[in-house]
Amino acid sequence: MNIDFSSMPSSLDMLHLILALVTALLFVLLLKKPNTENSSLIAEEESLIPDAPIPSSAPEQPAIPQVQLKAATPDSALQLLTLLQQDARFIDFVKEDLSDYSDADIGAAARVVHEGSKKTLDTYFTLDAIRSEDEETRISLPAGFNASEVRLTGNVVGEAPFNGTLVHKGWKVSEAKLPKISEGHDSTIVAPAEVEL
Fold first, then answer.
1. Residue 1 predicted with pLDDT over 50
2. What are the domain boundaries of the chain?
3. At what angle do helices 103-124 and 75-88 cross, to 10 degrees?
4. What is the pLDDT of residues 96-109, one digit of tens each?
5. Within a 10 A sphere around the Cβ of 85, how many other Cβ atoms?
6. What are all long-range contacts of 183-192, with beta carbons under 8 Å and residues at least 24 apart?
7. According to the model, what pLDDT value does residue 66 have?
8. Element (H or E) spanning 140, and its range?
9. pLDDT tens track for 93-145
10. Residue 51 confidence class, pLDDT cut points 50, 70, 90
């Protein structure tokens, strides 16, 4: 069997990086695996000296906190969908088959949906940009940056600080003021049927 070393990859891609990490993890687990013969000898020696303090060879690891997932009720999402339908006819626009319409007709309808959606967002939400820099400018992210506010894309290799181009500023809701829902209100009806008499 001949191996052509010239065809081997010269750069480290994501698949090779994952393979290397899995190999290193398996090697560490193999090193940490207790030897059954040695552990039985240690147990016998410890039984001979019951009152002697046993030094800990490894520092205690802090307990990893369990992530608690909370069930999201659909009421707020349904309420927002209702408001977008009322102000922007959002559901009507999305559910409409647009294949028979011209681009000009779709553009005119999109203008109505855009204006109504903007009105809904401006009325019920206060939105702030996460990053203040202009888009398409170079920025630096220091170590410890908030990963829930900034998503890294492209060739993500190494550790922070990261230098890259801001593609999107991001949005964060600083205040939400959805109207209160009366007891017994059916939130699943986001647009009642209309009958003209």
1. no
2. 76-144+162-176
3. 130
4. 999 999 999 999 99
5. 18
6. 187/74, 187/75, 187/78, 187/79, 187/82, 188/78, 190/78, 190/81, 190/82, 190/85, 190/91, 191/82, 191/85, 191/86, 191/91, 191/92
7. 79
8. strand 138-141
9. 999 999 999 999 999 999 999 999 999 999 999 999 999 999 999 999 999 99
10. low
Q: What is the pLDDT of residue 58?
A: 58
Read off the amino acid at residue 3: I
**Which of residues 36 and 120 earns the better pLDDT score?**
120
Lookup: tokens for 12: 């480290």
Report CA dihedral (64, 66, 67, 72) to the nearest 10 degrees: -170
Task: Return all residues near 123 (Cβ < 8 A) that are at least 6 apart.
Answer: 177
Tell me the two tokens of residue 36. Answer: 């059954």
Residue in 80, 166, 165 with CA at minimum distance from that of residue 129: 166
Q: State the amino acid at position 195 in one-letter form.
A: V
Q: Look at residue 84 and tell me whether its pLDDT is greater than 50.
A: yes
Q: How far is CA 44 from the centre of its chain?
A: 51
Count of CB atoms situated within 10 Å of the CB of 117: 17
CA 181, CA 125: separation in Å to the nearest integer? 17
